[in-house]
Design brief:
heterodimer; A: alpha+beta; Arc Repressor Mutant, subunit A; B: two-stranded antiparallel ribbon; 8 helices; 3 strands
């Protein structure tokens, strides 16, 4: 029986954000924007969805008089990401065997 | 990148791999810190060796420059911290290792300075004193208790974070320097303290200055691309 793919993660931009954050301790919003080539508006919406799901932590502060937003994956986010990758592997294994 | 696009499982996996590689490729050490510490430890070691070997004095303890180097190091750390957009896990762990190394060096210096006086007092409490006998003339001279081959302990301490960083980052110059530094520690156990000072200077150059210059060259090359 297949595990259902997490709908929060099974979206291109949210998955890209999570994959970036899983690799680092924390990252600035501008870094995520640069690496995903997303617009600030779209990225803000998706970051908010990930935050509401409890997958990431968002910290807003001022650095040299400029607002700075930092994102960090939470333990719940790590677990969800691992489950997502495991579910993907299940699908791919079956797909690969069927060929 | 559009949020709504439906992905196949294969595409999801490709996206994960691509993003992880993008995040990994971002971190690049500027080499400024290792150059600073390699230079000061190298100069301090070589100058103090020269003072002992050729019997002259520059008028102050050259090792103070190592403590003064904390000032530019703080400035460098703050400046680089401001420029950083991410903190990689490995970077965070290695920074912790170097912070603990800094504390350990401080504690070892404390040990070097405190032990002779403390030992003298403890021995006096037991009605004991240290005397050194010249076996050729038979002359007896009272001495303060002292730590034998103290500089060897510094070499031992230098080798630890250097080798750990080299292995973690797969950076051969630091792996080689760390191993050579352990070798220099063993060698220093059989040499006089004058030669230990020379080994300290060489360790500074090998462990940090040379790897720092290599890192700097890589960093500048990466920036210009």
């Amino acid at each position: 029986m297949f595990t259902e793919l997490d709908p929060i993660l099974h979206s291109q931009l949210r998955l890209a954000v999570m994959s970036l954050l899983i690799s680092v301790k924390e990252a600035e919003f501008t870094f995520i924007k640069e690496k995903t080539n997303a617009t600030a508006g779209n990225l803000s919406v998706q970051v908010q969805k990930l935050r509401e799901a409890g997958y990431i932590e968002v910290t807003k502060q001022f650095k040299d008089n400029y607002p700075q937003t930092t994102c960090k994956v939470t333990p719940k986010g790590v677990e969800a990401f691992e489950n997502y990758v495991r579910a993907l592997q299940q699908y791919l294994q079956v797909g690969g065997n069927g060929k | 990148m559009a949020e709504e696009k439906q992905m196949t499982e294969q595409e999801s996996l490709q996206l994960i791999t691509e993003m992880i590689n993008k995040a990994k490729g971002h971190y690049q050490e500027s080499g400024t810190g290792p150059i600073l510490w390699g230079t000061v430890v190298g100069i301090a070691g070589l100058v103090s060796f020269a003072e002992h070997y050729w019997h002259f004095s520059i008028g102050f303890d050259i090792w103070w420059i190592v403590f003064l180097a904390f000032i530019p190091q703080i400035v460098i750390s703050v400046r680089e911290g401001k420029q950083k957009k991410t903190v990689a896990y490995q970077e965070a762990y290695l920074n912790t290792i170097w912070l603990v190394f800094g504390i350990s060096i401080f504690m070892l210096t404390f040990y070097f300075n405190v032990i002779p006086g403390a030992s003298e007092r403890l021995m006096a409490g037991d009605n004991q004193q240290v005397w050194i006998k010249n076996t050729a003339t038979g002359e007896l001279k009272q001495s303060r208790p002292f730590i034998l081959s103290a500089q060897s302990l510094l070499l031992l301490l230098y080798a630890m974070p250097t080798l750990a960083t080299g292995i973690a980052q797969r950076f051969k110059p630091m792996v080689i320097a760390g191993i050579v530094c352990y070798g220099m520690f063993i060698l220093s156990c059989f040499l006089s303290s004058t030669w230990d000072l020379l080994l300290n200077g060489v360790a500074g150059i090998l462990n940090w200055l040379i790897p720092g210059l290599i890192l700097r060259a890589r960093y500048l090359k990466g920036k210009s691309c």
